[in-house]
Protein 1
Amino acid sequence: MGTAVRKGNRDKSGPPGAWKLEDAKARFSEVVRRAQSEGPQRVTVRGREAVVVISVDELDRLLPRGAGKPAFVPFLEGLGLDGLDLEREVDRGRDIIL
């Protein structure tokens, strides 16, 4: 199946599936459709790759099985911040002359 590319809808300086940000915004439905049917769609900002739009199926394939959002408390505990000093001096404001 060929991939017809309309004029002005993708970044011609990049590989197929590369979109300039302004074009991706204007044709977001097409970007999403192509991500589902053709694979990852790269979005460039000022000529540099910035983000990639991928399908949920592709994301599920890339993520480890059973990977989900960790519970908040275990996540924080796993950051290894035990020795972090969170104390601060009491701030009583400042005197101003009115």
Note: The domain at 1-63 is CATH 3.40.1620.10 (YefM-like fold).
Protein 2
Amino acid sequence: MRRSSAQGVLYGQTVANVAGIANSDLECMDILHLEGRVTAGRLAEVTGLTTGAITGVVDRLEKAGLVRRERDEGDRRKVFITVVPEAAMKIGELYVPLQQAMERVWSAYSEEELRLLLRFANEGYKGVLAATSALKGHLDTPPEKRPDLKMRKLPRRP
């Protein structure tokens, strides 16, 4: 899992390099794609970046033609960030080799096995969310009040 995760990061970095943007900007664009039209504040909240850092990310992505800012019709002070669909499709094309490779892997599994793998992936995602939240909570605690982050050893499975 760690190797696959690390390789996924490296693949994303390669996509970003080919697209001519920073990997962190590509990750923010992916979050925008998943979240849909969001404010810069929401993007900062989801990524954990400061609003100032998000402004820089959005500026770079907008300059590259990948996202655009849209004013809210109901409240002109509110600005939403949205992915430019044509640009997202071009970046999506860079993931086709990865998608094809994964489809070859998945084709070897039965429906039942795929359901188990999907359940594993969904539950694993929830575990990562919980662990991320806990670690962020650690950072939000004043240093003098932080508990030690002692790593406990898990029992080995037979």
Note: The radius of gyration is 19 Å.
Protein 3
Amino acid sequence: MPGPVPNREADLARPRERKGSDVQPVTKGVLREVKIPNADRDWHPIARRLWDSLKSSGQADFYQNSDWAFAYSLCEDLSFYKKSGKRSGQMLQTIYSAFERLLVAEGDRRRVRIELHEPEPEEQSAAVLAIADYKKELGLAE
């Protein structure tokens, strides 16, 4: 999606209000089980590092098998590019543009209104806190 990177939702003065004509129906499908292929051992180290980072990045929560196949193909192309002695700026730009479709960079995600946030800190459940209070009242707490 071309254009400037939008602000994060939290940075906006008020949430976006959608006008009636802006609301588009969403066609929904069922997520399938995902099997992430292993990286090719012969890839250039940069392509392998990018592949490994994709597996541990938050946007991978949205990836399906076709996305992983596309990412694999792009890493194969990136590896070929990095290993070749004759490099083309146009080829590199094409590879980078394709990675935008996988929402690899934060700006790419924000353009399609996807934000990754820090995980919420785990709080103790009410039952655990009640047991701790009960032990304290009985004088059993440490």
Note: The CA atoms of residues 1 and 18 lie 19 Å apart.
Protein 4
Amino acid sequence: MTKWRTLLLATAAFNLSFLIWFSFAPFTGPIGEEFGLTTWDVGLLASAAIWSAPPGRIVTGWLSDRFGAPKVFAAVLAYVGAFSVVSAFADSYVAFFLSRLVVASAGVTFVVGIQHVAQWFPEEQLGTAEGVYAGVGNAGAAGGALLLPRLFGADWRSAFLVTGVAAIAMAVVYVLLGEDAESEARAREASERASLREWLHVATRYGVLALALAYVMSFGLEISMNGWLPTYFREGFGSGLVVASTFAATFSLAAGLLRPVSGYVSDRLVREGRDVLPVFAGRPREQWTVVCLSWVVVSLFGLTLAGETGSVGLTVAAGALVGASCAFAEGAVFAQVPAMFPERTGAAAGIVGGIGTFGGIGFPLIFASAETTLGSVHAGYAAVATLVIPIVLLNAWIARPALARRAHAAGPFDPSPARDRADESDD
């Protein structure tokens, strides 16, 4: 293997994982009709798709460091594929709901691939490589929204069966072709550092805590909208199944395909030593993250305003801008994570990626209840924008040069102060 073939393998596997993760979204209408679901039930299903991701990502990030990404990726794909097949034959909503909970753990593969790519690429290419991996991989949700309704119509059972078999096949490919790292020494170092003490050290650093919350408002928002937008366009504008899914796909495409651009920008700012926010001089990756997070807030308010006009075209365009803002924020965050913890990327990615998915659990519930509590189905986006402003302010505080230089070593809790001092001396 080379680093480029590793990137291609990880990206293809994650793209399929993301497609499977949100393969239910285009079929919420037919599924709701068959099982007699309300709009709230559909919102709960969208939320439930995220439940296993927070603990699952934390665990699989550590497992990837300890045992190597190929083994972990293949294992997850295999059982996710098996339960996708099971869900295709569910004869009750309870059986369907429980099997899809297991399928939803496909989302944990993100941190596995992050660790795998980081083990093959040098620091100066990390932002771009991780952006390509995550961005093209995330576009799997758009692929599902565009392709599945067209290939299978309203036949969600066939869709879940076929995608499940595809996941099992990809598991076999990954275990046969994947290699842990560019060298045995690098793989061995990651494995030896995968201890509880090391995990606790990473989990309690300021940098990880701030980036995890930044991922709540970027990736958490993205996955919540992947599951919610088909319902939103159907309920808010009376769109049909295929049309609503197509509108929703514009968000997913923007959220996926633009992520590499942000990673590249972060890399380039570092190489050129360029400041985009002079108040945080000398910390270009952190500056770029704060800029991108601010864009998320502004674009969410814009989506509410666009929806209130009643114009479908304007709302689709505003949704694409929200998707772009999520992509840029995610790319900025995961340009920082492996650069901050090069020897413990799996653990750091697992924590940031795991906590970040909590947004996907809570945000759909806000969206689904907006019409009742706020008087408009469009107002949920503005409500979320208001809630995440403190996260932007926290990341701006961490981005101050005096703290940013030590964000990988300092934290509110210090279970390993000796290690902190050693890390600081390396600066």
Note: The radius of gyration is 20 Å.
